[in-house]
Amino acid sequence: MRKYLLKRVFYMILTLFLVASITFFLMKLMPGTPYSNQEKMTPQQIQIMNEQYGLNKPIWMQYLIYLGGMLHGDLGTSFQFSNQPVSYLISSRIGPSAQLGAQAMVFGLFFGIIVGSIAAINRNTWIDTTSTVLSIIGKSVPNFVLAVLLQYYIALKLGWFPIADWGSFSYTVLPTIALGVGPLAETARFIRTGMVDVMNSDYIELAKAKGLSRYGVVYHHALRNSLIPLVTLIGPYTVALMTGSLVIENIFSIPGIGEQFVKSILTNDYPTIMGVTMLFSAGLVVVILLTDIIYGIIDPRIRLSGNGD
Amino acid sequence: MEEKLKLSPDSFEALPQAQEPDNEKIAAPSLTFVQDAWRRLKMNKGALISFWIIILMMIVAFGSSFFINHSTLVKSAPQYANLPAKIPGVPINGFNGKLKVAGQWVDEYKQNNVPTGKYFILGTDNLGHSLAQRILYGTKISLIVALVATFFDLTIGVAYGIISGWRGGRVDTVMQRIIEIISSIPSLVIVVLMLIVLRPGMTSIIAAIAISSWTTMARMIRAETLQLKSQEYVLAARSLGESPFKIAWKHLVPNLSSVIIIQTMYTIPTAIFFEAFLSFIGIGISSPETSLGVLLNDGQKNFQFLPYQMWYPAIVLCILMIAFNLLGDGLRDAFDPKSRR
Amino acid sequence: MKLSKFAKLGAVVALSAVFLAACGSKSGSGQASKQVLNWNESAELPSMDLSKATDVVSFNALNNTNEGLYRLGKDSKIEPGIATKTSVSKDGKTYTFTLRKNAKWSNGDKVTAKDFVYGWQRTVDPKTASQYAYLYSGIANADDIMNGKKSVSDLGIKAEGNYKLVVTLDKKLPYFKLLMGFPSFFPQSEKAVKEYGSKYGTASKYMVYNGPFQLTKWTGSNLSWTLKKNNNYWDKKNVKLSAINYTVTKSNSTAYNLYQSGKLDEAILGSEQAKQLSNSKELVVRKAASTFYLQYNQTKKEFQNKNIRKAISLVINRQQFVKKVLGDGSTVAKGYVSADLAKNNGKDFADQAYVKDAVANNTAEAKKLWQQGLKELGVSSLNFEILSDDTDKGKDTTEFLQSQIEENLSGAKVSVANVPFKTRLSRSESGNFDVVVTGWGADFADPISFLDLFTSDNSQNDGKWKNSEYDKLIEASKTTDTGNTDKRWADLVQAQKILLNDQGISPIYQQATSTLVKSKVKDVIYNSAGVNYNFKDAYIAN
User: Where in the cell is it found (chain C) (predicted)?
Assistant: First the structure.
């Protein structure tokens, strides 16, 4: 186990290092300067500023300096937000994104499990069909379309929730739904398939034969066993929520990190691009590692070995 | 055992020669794997309808290339901008050229002095392009994106998976680490990096898909290959000295086909979604070309005033996505040995 | 300056139009009891450092929370700020300002002449890396200091005691007083800069304010902040609003939804929304002193041909474009220099230097010239690319142009490239384009601010259009004719006429933004140039 963990962590660091390197060199291919007023400045001024920001050094040297800084937790200073360290920028904007992502994940998993189990229990009835159709629709509607509809009908027309902005819990409801419907639909379908499989198996027949109540069978056997593979979905969900949050943050005016990322690219804000890329990748790598570990713990059949996939 | 069998001597007589083979016959016709799957698929109404919907959409979308070409896309007519749907002879509000403006149904065609006889069955966009034409073209682009993703799944994904699983050992370890690294980079980051090097448009989208979309397929194929490798018939083929390429083609690919088909059906909707998302953040297909994602993005900006500009592409995208998802489900059930009960 | 989607600061000093949010009683009698304004911004507030701010959101916040020698009122009129008295030397090169004694920072410290000296020196110091230091060009020694040739203490600004300031210039600057109302020339408290160090201006608490309002609730990266009435402000009795709450929305439809629900008193509209709301009584069009035009790459043979350029220009139906495609209040450009920018003897420059053919739409003539041009080039068809921004406006523009050109000019094959602003700039600068849709905003209220761009040796002249007569006229306006207003004016009029007659560029539209403002909001001052908004006199009516 320990050897496995060490190995995984080593590969994790290697991955992040490669991501950092590729991003860094590609970023240097971007046209233009990071200055928001470049067209006004004389070539001498741009040269003086490049010297100040260390942009006149050879690229390999900038690369080493960047890597060195990153080891100390220094991600540089943003160009769009003058004097603002990228680490501060990220830490001040990661909160809403993370909260939204977590809420959407919980929302999606929780209701997905409920819908999925109801469908499986009432297999091949109208309830099953309805929930299947709904979850397919849920999976098929782009979340930005859903967000616009929710904002217009629920918030503006009905006035149940705030239209936009970020504050108390009520502000998070609509964005959470818009973001969480995708995972919800996916989870429901996943749980339904899993439970139908399990409920056809012999030990469920045995449990039924022993006279266990319907509820008991569903809860103790079917649901538990179909929950385990759900852990593997958390990785892909994280990716979906990361990209999805960008769109949702834009529509609901949420001070999150996703939207900042696109803007940093358009303004050549090199340190922010690097910082957010690294954050996204690190987040994903850690989530994948964690889900693998959890999976190994709850399902003893999976052996944690170095070359497992 | 009191009862005695009463056997008469004629029970021991041979049957007439002609009847003999009939007894050996198997009642049902023998089915190949594909035939069997097709039979199952046909039993699944939803999947079958979806299948035909997809075929129809493909025919219409690709067939439209004959009359929706570059110049039709380029040609704008701002004097006809933002007209709602009008189908002659349909007196339903919303399809008769009327638009709800501040609570009132207003005939926009009359307001904009559109000559009688000129109508757009799904209305027009902000430059006076026919929305119906745009949607057809957009569907085509979305389908192309889907096909491209499928192509990479089938080539890179399958080949990579088979090689990795077949060779095993060191090669497998290295190849799996590469996949791990690729899938650890969020796709958004990949696209953005692509954009730095390439221009926004089809090329960058395809490049991004080429880089990241095949990893799931490769993983699944590898896992299956690992299992198949130890099967007797593969072992037999190996002992007989078949070349690895031939083994892969003759033995592995047919046995992997169910995994391949099912996974493809899930890749397609993901790719269509991905393109729509890219267009939303403004780095997708560039004008005058359009895609369902671009249309949706344009439509959502004016949803308060011109809801039809979002609804129509949204409905088409949803139908497409639902069809692919249902077909995917149907195919999984059809190919999955577990559900053959 | 070239204009981007990130609402770059428009012209810095220019004559400007004022839009009172609504006409109505201007007396203070009809004031509502709750004086809180809810305002919409389309981007974050990136900096509150007077030396480092570069964008329109920052400058708006700085202008309302700080104050310089003057405050710019309606029509960019000079209104009293920290300076109570100004005397100018005969040669116009030395200004002496007397400062008011009751001006205070929000921490209670007095605002003195030393704060001005410190602020100016800090901005010009190359170590500060201020991107707006170029505005100081013309103040004694500023250029040398910016290029690292002289030390900051040589800058032409001296404090004589606490309340007297002497500024010396290299040359006469007709627009100098207007500059003094611009945030880059505001005083800075040395104590605050030193105390907060690298955090100065990165959050509302790391900054001191001497203006009508002070900033609160800004963490440095959030999407909402509040300007609260500053009780240390010398003229606080005339500040009516108690607070201005800002909300950043990235999507125009979100802004409009918030506006409809009453959460915002102002909303910035997208082009389609503006078209749909064109009859609304609350629609307010904010004009900018900037012109968008087609620039041709004249290092390429096909665009050296005047007939080709003329044909492209004549084929554009500009009226239809601004009304039907943009629809946001933008107007057809009269010429290169924007309308209502500068007047001489009561006549607008744009009217005097108007060349009808340069901005007309004549398809028949265009077709003729096009064929003639193709013949001269010896080709039967022409493929070229139009480069523009990747904004909605940029995309609509290229799509419209592509349609108009391909439909009407046979043999023309247009491809479009919509790229991010930075990429467009970089491609323009390196000459990697055929035709580019680009914009320019005036830096000050004089046609020269526009016309300077197209002299042969200007590094910003990306299209490389050259005309020796044009160069001579521009040179004359700066040297021999500089003392003679009418003569200089005539030179500049003649120069624009040469530029447009030769179709060196093809002006398309003068930019504007549509907003919705609740009618109860009164006396918000909007200047099309420099800092846009001044809320000092604004109030909420009953």
Answer: Cell membrane
